Amino acid sequence: MKMILRWFPNGDDTVTLEQIKQIPGVSGVAVMLSHIPCGEVWSPEEINKVKAEVNAAGLEMEVVESVNIHEDIKQGLPSRDALIQNYIETMKNLADAGVKCICYNFMPVLDWYRSDLYMPLPDGSNCMAYNHDFAKTLTYEKMTKAMMDGSNDFSLPGWEPERFGKMAKDIEFYQNVTQDEYFENIKYFLDAIMPYAEEYGIDFGVHPDDPPYPMFNLPKVVNNAEAIRRYLSLNPSKHNGLTLCTGSLGANPNNDVPSMAKEFASMGRVPFVHLRNVLHTGEGEFHESAHLSSCGSLDMFKIIEALHDAGFDGYIRPDHGRMIWGETGRPGYGLYDRALGATYINGLWEAVTKLKS
Ligand SMILES: [Mn+2]
C-alpha cells in the first residue's frame, strides 16, 4: 500500500509539497493539470514540469487525478474518435513520466456536487454536506443565477466557467439517452483505451458517482455494487478498475462498503482507494466527517481489513477533510484534517498487518 495525498499544481493549492512531505508515511501526490482544456493532449513538457517539482520535494508522482473525459466521448458524438486519440497520447506521455494509475469519472455533465461547502459543525470546524431533497429543487436557471450573483445556496465546486455555460444543452441531450445507451458509450471508450493501458502499464480507476444519487434525470454510472460489476465487465482487462471512494459509495446507507472492498480488491480491480467517512443524518442526507469510525457512519477498520485481506497493494489517499484549526482553502482539501486522516489510516493499516502476520 502506498499512501498519497491529492495536490493541485501551478499555484492552485494552499497546501505545499513540503508540508505534504512532512506527513509521516506519505510517499507521493495525485496531481491534475487543470490548466489544459479537457480533450487536449497533456504534453511531455507540461507533465515533466510538475513531475520535477514533485520529485524535488522528495515525493513521487505515480497517480493522476483526473484526466477528464470530454463530453463528446460521453455523448458518443462523431468527434469522439479524435478526442480518444488525444486521450491515448496523454496516457503515453504520462506513462513515460512514470505515472502508473489514472483516476477518472464517467459521470455525464456533472462532476461531484454538494448542497453546502461550509457546513459548521458543533466543534467549530466546517465540512461539506449534501441534502438530496434540496438538490432536487435545483433548476438550471436557479443554478445559473446563483453562479452569476455569487450566492451560496448550492455549490458546484471545481467547475470551469466554459463548462458551466454548456451545461443546459448537455442536460437536455441526456433526457433521451437510456442507461443502456450510455453504457455503450462507456464501452466504446474502454475498448479503445484498454489495449494502450496494458501496453503502457497504467491502471484505470473509475471514480463512483458523488453523491450516488442522480440529478436532472442524468444516467447513473457507478453508484452501487451491481453498477460496479457491470462497469468492470464492459472490458475484461485488469487495467479497467475502480477507484474505491468510501465516502461516495458510503453516502448511500444501502451500500456495504467493506463487502465492496473485499469483492473488487480480491478481483485485483482496485488500484486506488479514497478513504473518508460520512455521517448519515437522514434520508438522502449526509455530511462529511473526520476519518475515524466513531465520527461517521462507516467502519473504517472493516474497510481497511477487507482491503488488506484481499491483498490490496495500490494507492490510498485520505479523501476530503474538514476545515479545522482556522484553516481556509479549497473545500475538502486543507492540510490538517487530511494529515490526521493519513495518520489514522496508516495506524489502522499497521495494526491490521501486524495482527494478521
Ligand atoms: Mn473520492
Instruction: Give helix % range.
Output: 40-55%
Strand % is: 15-25%
| Number of helices, counting only DSSP H or I runs of 4 residues or more | 14
Compute the average pLDDT.
91
Global shape? globular
Biggest sheet architecture: 8 strands, parallel, barrel
Query: What do we call the CATH topology?
Result: TIM Barrel
By CATH, the superfamily comes out as Divalent-metal-dependent TIM barrel enzymes
β-strand number? 12
**How large is the radius of gyration?**
19 Å
Distance between the termini: 16 Å
Secondary structure category: alpha/beta
- What ligands are attached or bound here? manganese (II) ion
| Helix-strand pattern | EHEHEHHEEEHHHHHEHEHHEEEHEH
**Largest sheet, order of strands side by side?**
1-2-3-4-7-8-9-12
Contiguous low-pLDDT stretches (5 residues minimum) are none
CATH architecture: Alpha-Beta Barrel
Number of structurally distinct domains: 1
Q: What is the C-level CATH assignment?
A: Alpha Beta
